[in-house]
Description:
Blueprint: H1 2-21, E1 23-24, E2 27-28, H2 29-58, H3 61-65, H4 70-74, H5 80-99, H6 103-142, H7 149-176, H8 181-187, H9 189-198, H10 200-215, E3 223-226, E4 229-236, E5 240-245, E6 250-254, H11 255-258, E7 263-265, E8 272-280, H12 286-301, E9 312-318, E10 323-331, H13 336-356
Amino acid sequence: MDKGxxxxxxxxxxxxxxxxxxxxxxxxxxxxxxxxxxIVLGFFLHPVFKFVLRQIKNHNPIxxxxxxxxxxxxxxxxxxxxxxxxLTIALWLIGGNAIGLPEKLNRxxxxxxxxxxxxxxxxxLFYCVDAMKDVLTKVSIKNSSSYNYGGQLIPYAxxxxxxxxxxxxxxxxxxxxGLNVMSLLAGLGLGGLALALAAQDTAANVFGSVSIMLxxxxxxxxxxxTKDTEGTVEEIGFRSTRIRTxxxxxxxxxxxxxxxxxxxxxxxxxxxxxxxxxxxxxETPIPMITKFCDQVREKIKSHDKVNPDTVTVAxxxxxxxxxxxxxxxxxxxxxxxxxxxxxQNIFLEILQIAADLNVEFAYPTQTTYSKDxxxxxxxxxxxxxxxx
Length: 388
C-alpha cells in the first residue's frame, strides 16, 4: 500500500514536471506560472504599499513640526498613489528579470513597465512641484510689499516646470522603447519652425505676460484704465488679461497688446481726488459767498478719511451764468464703492449748507435784448388802460 502511494505520487510529480517543462508561447510553462504569480503578488501588495505609505505620511513628525516646510506641504498631496505603483512596478521588473524571460518577450515586458514607470514618476514630480509652489507662495505673501511679484510669477514658473517635466518624461519613455530621440528632434526641426511661425502671436502674448509680470504695472484686483477699457483686473494669464468692467462684463485683452498700451492704474493711488465746481447765482451777496465757502471747507475737513491739507474751497471764476466755487480734496479709500459713498455724503452736506444759508445754485440762463425794441419799462411806470 505504501509502495503504491509512493509510486503514484512519483508519477504525479513526473507529470507535473513534464507539464512545467513544456514550452508554450516562447518559454516553458513554469516561467509563465512564475510570471503570473509575480503579477498577482504585485496587485496584492499594491494596496498594502499604499496603506503603509499613507500611515508614514500622516504620522510624519517633520511635517507636524514644520507645517510650512516642503515636507509639510508634500504630505498634503496624494503622493502614496504614485509611490505605491513605483514599488509595484519595481517588484514586477525584478521578478521578470529573475524568471529570465526570452529576449523578445522581455523587451516588450520591460518597455511596457518602463512606460508606466515614467507616468508615475511624472505624476510624483507634479505633486512635488505643487508642494514647492505652496511653499513659495506662502513665503511671497509673508514678504510681499504693495506689489506681490512672487505671488504672480510662481504660478507661471510651476506651469512651465510641469511642462518641462512632462516633455522630459516623454522623451525618456521614447528612449526606453529604442527610439533615437536626437534624430527625432532633428527631424522635427522644420516642423518646429513652421509651428513657431504659426504660433508667433501666441509667443508674443507669452512674452507680453512675462513683461507684465516683470514690470508689474498692475496686479489682480487693481482698477485700471487702458485704451477703451476700464475695470478691475480679474486674471493675468499666459495669453491674455481679463478685466471685469463696471458694466459687469469681462473684457479679454491679449498680453502682447496690453503690454504696449498706456495703463492708468487707479488702484495704486495713495489717495483719490474729488474735484467739483459749484455754480451759485450772481445775486448771492459777497458775505454769504464767504460764509458758504468757510462752512463747506470746515465740513469737508471734519471727515476722518479726508486729507485736511488738500482741502480747497474757494470762489475762483466768473462764469457766464454763475459764480464758480472750486471744491477740491483727497480721500483715503481703497475701493470704488467707498469713494462713491463718501463723495455722496459730502455732496449732500454741501446741499444742506446751501439750503441753510439760502444760497442758490445757478443753472444756465440767458437774457436777449433786441436793438429796435423799446427800452425796458421801469417798475414805477404806469400804463393806462385802453379807452373803450
